[in-house]
Design goal:
Elements lengths: L4 E9 L10 E6 L9 E10 L3 E9 L3 H7 L7 E7 L11 E7 L3 H9 L1 H4 L1 H4 L2 E8 L8 H4 L4 E6 L6 E2 L2 H8 L8 E6 L2 H13 L4 E4 L15 E5 L7 E5 L6 E3 L6
Parallel strand pairs: 6-7, 6-10, 7-8, 8-9, 10-11
Antiparallel strand pairs: 1-4, 2-3, 2-5, 3-4, 11-14, 12-13
The structure holds FE2/S2 (inorganic) cluster.
Length: about 260
């Protein structure tokens, strides 16, 4: 898919539920005891066939677990649990949607862009602008999936392709052109990107749903290993802890403190 990135297609039984954009699955090699933990991977695509489905997952090799995954041979078994978590909400009331993806964060947003929410009659009438950033050209994944479905802005930290700078810098350049009352942003990427997006939107508040990339252990809401502090909603002040795997991974940017 791109340097260090792997696209995996997994054949699943027909009964496997269709994932909502933003949901994830926990995957583990069958018959291997190390590493012990399953890994959370975002859904990049899902195709339904008469008697089976094909799940597409994009991941980047970052450690032993993902390296083992990348060495699986076609036909080897995989345990897939899911779909899990709370996905993106529809862009009700918006006339344009912006997608902001950093690195491998492109996967859930590409699925959102090409899936049901955006291809329905209401979804098709929306203006869609996709901002995709990576450290360098070789790390830009999924360009081919995106380019026919949206206006695409590309950037790299080293300037090897597109705008030279971060994806939030690229958005900042265009931001005044978007009416906050008619725009919704969907974002996914590393924590520094989410942090600078939050700072950017302080001055020009546009509603934003963000999918957090967090380390997970159980994926089911039981271990609290993925807890993040969020601003308490409703009455009262202060913070409370929410589980990324169960209460997220999608949150309103307003409530999280990346
Ligand atoms: Fe265990 Fe979220 S990963 S509670």
């Amino acid at each position: 898919a791109a340097r260090d990135h792997f696209l995996m297609s997994v054949r699943l039984p027909g009964a496997f539920p269709v994932p909502l954009p933003g949901q994830f699955v926990m995957v583990r090699e069958v018959g291997r005891s190390v590493p012990l933990l399953a890994r959370p991977l975002s859904v990049l695509g899902f195709k339904v066939h008469p008697d089976h489905s094909v799940l597409e997952l994009l991941y980047r090799v970052v450690g032993e677990g993902t390296s083992l995954l990348s060495r699986l041979k076609p036909g080897e078994g995989l345990s897939v649990m899911g779909p899990l978590g709370r996905g993106f909400a529809p862009p009700d009331g918006a006339r344009q949607v912006l997608f902001l993806a950093g690195g491998v964060g492109v996967a859930p947003l590409a699925y959102l862009l090409t899936g049901g929410l955006m291809t329905s009659e209401a979804g098709r009438s929306l203006r869609k602008v996709f901002y995709l950033g990576a450290r360098s050209m070789e790390l830009l994944a999924c360009l081919d999936r995106l380019q026919d479905s949206c206006e695409l802005g590309v950037c790299t930290d080293d300037g090897s392709r597109g705008y030279c700078g971060s994806v939030t810098d690229l958005l900042a350049r265009d931001l005044d052109g978007y009416d906050p009352g008619q725009t919704l942003i969907y974002a996914c990427g590393p924590t520094p990107m989410i942090r600078s997006l939050k700072a950017l939107l302080k001055a020009r508040p546009i509603p934003c749903q963000v999918s957090l990339e967090e380390r997970m252990a159980c994926g089911l809401g039981a271990c609290l290993g993925c807890a993040v502090a969020v601003r308490r909603q409703g009455q009262g002040q202060g913070i409370e802890y929410r589980r990324v795997c169960k209460d997220g991974p999608v949150f309103d940017l307003e409530e999280v403190n990346p």
